[in-house]
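2024-03-11 09:14:02 DEBUG pipeline.ingest accepted 1 chain
2024-03-11 09:14:02 DEBUG pipeline.ingest length=99
2024-03-11 09:14:03 DEBUG pipeline.predict start
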Amino acid sequence: MNVTLLYFDDCPSWQTADQHLRALAEEMDLTIERVEVTTPERAEQLRFRGSPSIHIDGVDLFADPDAPVGLSCRIYQTPQGSAGSPTADQLRSVLAARR
């Protein structure tokens, strides 16, 4: 399965999402593409709703249709509360559902 991790470098949470995806890569046969979003224009083009965003086939796995498009850090709701990245278990569940 091909997964795209979209991020912008000023957001530290993308590295946590990347670590979770790398840990799941072999278990779930994932190919991970990392795309750095560097301009507001590119954010608009990609419908980038904050860093990190995880997409499969251009679909944001944790889409919030009310979230603005742009270069910002994203907040995820996790079992432990608000966080800058989904947990490994949340990623595993969403990716398994996409198979």
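2024-03-11 09:14:41 DEBUG pipeline.report The mean pLDDT is 94.
2024-03-11 09:14:41 DEBUG pipeline.predict end
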